[in-house]
Amino acid sequence: MPAEKFLRMRNVRNDKNRLASEKYNVKGVYILHNISRHKYYVGQAHKLLSRVNGHLTGKGNGDVYADYIYGDKFRVRFVRFRGRAFKSLNEMERYYIDKYHAQNAGYNKTVGNK
Question: What's the pTM?
Answer without folding.
Answer: 0.88
